[in-house]
Amino acid sequence: MTARVGVVTFPGSLDDGDAARAVRIAGAQPVRLWHGDPELHGVDAVVLPGGFSYGDYLRCGAIARFAPVMETIVDAAAGGLPVLGICNGFQILCEAHLLPGALTRNQHLHFRNRDQILRIESAGTAWTNVFQPGQEVLIPVKNGEGCYVADPATLDALEAEGRVVARYVGVNPNGSQRDIAAITNPAGNVVGIMPHPEHAVEALTGPSLDGLGFFTSVLKHLVGAPA
Amino acid sequence: MTTHPDPVRDTPEAVPATPAQPVQPYPAASAGQADWADRVDTVPRAEGTPEELQPYAELGLRDDEYDRIRHILGRRPTQSELAMYSIMWSEHCSYKSSKVHLRQFGEKAPPSDRLLAGIGENAGVVRVSDELAVTFKVESHNHPSFVEPYQGAATGVGGIVRDILAMGARPVAVMDPLRFGAADHPDTARVLPGVVAGVGGYGNCLGLPNIGGEVVFDPCYQGNPLVNALCLGVLPVSRLQNKAAVGPGNVVVLMGAKTGRDGIGGVSVLASATFTEGSEQRRPSVQVGDPFTEKLLIEACLELYDAELVAGIQDLGGAGLTCALTETAAAAGTGMRVWLERVPLREPSMDPHEILASESQERMLLVVEPAKLETVLKTCEKWGVLATAIGEVTAPEPDGQPGRLLITWRDQLVVDVPPGSLVDDGPVYARPMREPADLILLQADRAETLPRPSDPDALRETVLRMIASPNLCDKTWVTEQYDRYVLGNTVLAQPEDSGVIRIDERTGLGVALSVDGNGRYARLDPYHGAKLALAEAYRNVVVTGATPIAVTDCLNFGSPEDPGVMWQFAEAVRGLADGCAELGIPVTGGNVSFYNQTGAAAIHPTPVVGVLGVLDNVAERVAMGFVPRPSGDHDQLFLLGETHVELSGSEWAWVTHQHLGGVPPQVDLAREKQLGELLAAAARVGHVSSAHDLSDGGLAQSLVESCLRYGVGARIAVPERFEGTSMPFVFLFSESAGRVLVSVPRGHEKAFTALCAEHGVPWELIGVTDSTGGALEVHGQFRIGLDELREAHSATLPALFGGVQPVELTVQDSAVEAAPVDAVEAPVEADPVASVEDAEPHAEAVSDGVESPEDDRPVERAAPPVRQQPIEAAGEQDTATDAPQGQSSADER
Which keywords are on file for this protein (chain B) (predicted)? Predict the structure, then answer.
């Protein structure tokens, strides 16, 4: 049976169609979820896409975490539902306290879009299990508020528990502490990533096909996961 | 969020005899009726006070224009009517100075069976397949962006996006041609970062990829930066929308943001007057953007279109509600009855004339059948978009005359006008025109006479200085602030020659878009300058392999009241119209921006031209970068077109000598067309691995850009006739039009050159790519490592505007860059460049006696011959004889 992967659309979501395309190319069935509908429609995993939910005129993701669909997702994540937050989705996961820390304004204060090399630090999550630890991948980064910050104790804990999922290699594009590009929760089912793997899934439109691994990982995870 | 106002029930005949239901939605404004009556200038009051003085001159209306309004109405206008006429008859809205010239775009337009909507609509729409059409337009937001760079630029993007949306299309990409004053001027450091952040802030938040544009610096734009914005949209042919307010009885719905005091008088105050001291005081005339609301507006409108709920739609841009109400009614010949107090206001104290003039952003006007109103309001509510029924379409007059626009404000009739009188019957001026007195002297001061670098060291230094100059340097500092990936259909984006967008994932159908202009060329010769802008945009599209089908333009000029400026404008329009006729592609829409002038100093005339092309399969598109090859393999580099000694108006003359004079390069659109057909054919069969347009900065610039794209070097041989003294410099820096640099994979050379001959395109083998050398080498002249090139090319903008490091290499690049760079002296016998030289035909005689007394340029020309077979042609002196039919060497022109 084809896995069903939900992609949430908030007002102001922008990369929702792209996340759905990546899910499709990875071989799963994308299911569009609506921010105002708490029902997850039986999906096996959820992607929170990039964008500017509710305009993000307040703190990024601060309003989206209160969306009806998020209440269901927070509960389901506690039960093991794989959740990937990309860019704005990462910000929402932090605001929803599914992941620690916060994403703040890029240190250089500019929006930045470039092709970024990442090193996969943890291949143990639901979204990175097809990668090798230490593998370098090329993924576009594009954000204005992608600077990951947390207190030193949290950062140390993330490192110690192997929960730093990916780091920026070369120039850090936004000033993130310890070059952190992606992190996961203790169970490894919730991952937040600032760069956009959904924009590296087609040779024609992306800088590489490396992003596809995030989406095939969750399919592999679902096959292995107990029903 | 959606409000459900009282149903619109009154018939227009009942007004004002039987006023509408009193509606008082804003308690804060519940002043006594008497107070309002005192403040509001009503139609009856206007009839009773014919002698009352009105501030028409302050609103930009001339005496005769004011008299005409009185004649149309048979009385003095009310305050609201005066505001409406002053806006709609302003230069910005009425095109009163440009109309007589713009007609040529229609008159000279080649027939096109693709055109679904043309000039006069919100944007032109062209069919690209049986099911799909695209719409695109470029517009200016120059004046607001000088006053308030961030919001001016942001709302410029917002405005053009709504134009595209109003045609029934989903906006899918934006581009931004930007022009600023001198790069190192302190005010440029204020304007540029704000404009770039504004373009990015709005477009990124809207989820539209930014796929290209221009960043140009010239002191002439110091007080008048040009912020032009282009938007591309895609629609199913069946979803095309119309702005006509058809169907008496239909409901008029205002959708989107609340109306505030921002932008009042934007078009009349800002866009239709010359800047003077104190322009900083005009900040309240600049609108403030809210991209989030616009994003919701887009999604809501598209859902309404798909459910076929919309009878007519118009965006609210410059001139706000006034423009939308009058244009929709005039387009249908109907009348309209509007209850102005129903307009949701941000500031309840606004007067009717302010509501009518407000340029608050993110608003659309819908015409909806009464039975569908409820569904429309529900859809808007789903997206959290405010939608309010504010009026009703009324029937034309019983005698067949168009209907009237009646607007009441709390039961008081404040507007009673024929809508067409504001839209179509505005003043039209054939303004006086005169060639600028200094033009003859300017044209006589040719850059071809300037001292040129004539030894290898000087040439090397020139290359490095030119690629670091503000206009030619790497623009990553700017473009990194734009999202180019969102929507997942960006096949090519800056720094490529064109942006390429896939519009049908199923078939691979896509479009290529480029937007170009050169103010210096147009200053020297506006007629040919406009043609050159068209030629460059056309060439930038064809290098991708696309077939051009439509043109849009943004005509940026000084004050039309200056006869010299008016002459420049007329010449530029004539050039563009003639050019489009020659190329066989129509202008489908555009924009005129006058009054780009501070005091007596006007900007260079700057026609910015956008060309759109179609690619049947975007997978076949050709990009500009040299492709890395395994060690020992290389592609051959061909220069297509003819190189003449053409340096006037060039980037080199400006950077090196601060010189602007002479006449711009010749432009031959028939040649451009041949070039386009060749490149489309070559792309289809995979004969070319890269193609890059030559324009500002000439061959040197294109070589450097193609090398740096993927970190692949090149070795170039200067053709024999360009040998000696300063001729290698001419080969590298001349800006002759109609030229393209292509790389051809091994095994394709013969087929490619045969194709060139078939299409009548002159070609010349000038070198090879070099994946391992890590340098750009020009034989016998210089060798510059790619690292040195990259550093020179990319350091300029970060040094000027700070903050951001130069672009990093990709994984692929790193591998290439890591290759040894020691292969300086390749063995001669194995050197492909050397063999190229051997195969080179001798130079055509530089001075071959074809001098023409009125133009001495042919003397300096060194046209490459047109050949069918490089080997056979080797050693031939006279190339005219073996030129294929239909071709001529340049000197015969």
Answer: ATP-binding, Cytoplasm, Ligase, Magnesium, Metal-binding, Nucleotide-binding, Purine biosynthesis
